[in-house]
Amino acid sequence: MGYWILMKRYKLILVITSILFGSMLQAQSTINSPYSRFGLGELHGKNVNANIKGMGGISIGMNNSTLVNPGNPASYAVFDSLALVLEAGLVANIVSLKTDQFTENSQSATLSYVLLGFPINKWWKTSMGIMPYSKIGYNVNIDIDMSEYDFTNILNELEGEGGINRIYWGNAFNIGKNLRLGVDASYLFGNGSRNSTILFLDSLNIYGTKLEASTRAGGFIFDYGIQYDVHIGEKDVLTLGLIYANKWNLNATRKSLATTITGGYYEIVEETKDTIQFIPEEKGSLVIPTTFGIGAVYKRTGNWLVGVDFEWQKWSEFGGFGVPDTLENTLRVAVGGEFMPDHTSISSLFKRMTYRGGARYGQTYVSANGNQINEFGISFGVSFPMKKSKTTIDLGLELGQRGTTKDNLIQENFFNVNFGVSIQEHWFYKRKYN
Question: Which residues of 386-417 are buried (b: 16+ CB within 10 A; e: fewer)?
Fold first, then answer.
């Protein structure tokens, strides 16, 4: 009887996971960020969980038996040897785009991750999941005043959508009591389109130009992680973490179509007049750069923790189809922590809840008009435990800013709501009685 109950549970988890995976794969890019026009788009790191987001994104030194943390694959090794963990999350964004002359608001919501973790045996644990790697989503109109040249004004319409998803399979191993090693094998796949249209608004005698380009990519990358515990007293533990990924190439194909057009503005129907260039398919590769990160978490078991992350990526290595790009190296710094008043309390929900806070600063790979685009955010979070189980509902809130309004650039003010559910159940045991 125990066997059939276990098999039913396996089938249930497979059905739930398949539905969530399918929803994730079908989700379209819904962000609105002009800076996603560059490189691979707006990057999404592996520190995706709603509770980690509530701590500023610290993940390299983080580990918890009820947490699937792809931010460092070595963290899987602390999974309970008798339990399975399933996590899923949603993210909702409110973004305000601001320049010296205008302000525009947008909202979006999408499934953000599906993660699964379980034991192979006491010293070997595994995890798998899906999450975004990058997203492209923008629609920008640039008005060019040509009056000083006694020429008609020009409108440049820029729009793009798409992105790259990540499916990973990770394994972690306990090497002795305090050392853990882990590796993630990730398959990146997706496509992005970027279109540019130049229109001469005040002249019917000059044809416009339209360029439609798309790129599809796919391939494997590998990430490695280490964690080491230093025990300080009976309850305090300092965990040191390290992550590394070497440079990888993704297989890619691209196609493009450049045409001359009329219309497309002032309610005039767009009409193609001629083809300038057509490239049906070109094969090549995209470079995914080297990553290195270090982190540390100091915690008092069952009560509180504080941590810090430093992560660096060499995006100056990035290029596509044999042509180097002009991206900058990136840096991410995050600090945060959590506090649980009384994890043994059975009477007060507020004492059993976990409260979080953090902050992050990042130098993105985008440089525009001589300015590297930076971002920062402050975050808060809370977990609501369910009675008589280890299931939690996690909420993370983040308020931040990206870019600047100086030098005719765009400043993005964003508010992110991260909602997650973490389910842990003991599945791997033998029943003594039927």
Answer: eeeebbbebbbbbebebbbeeeebbbbbbebb
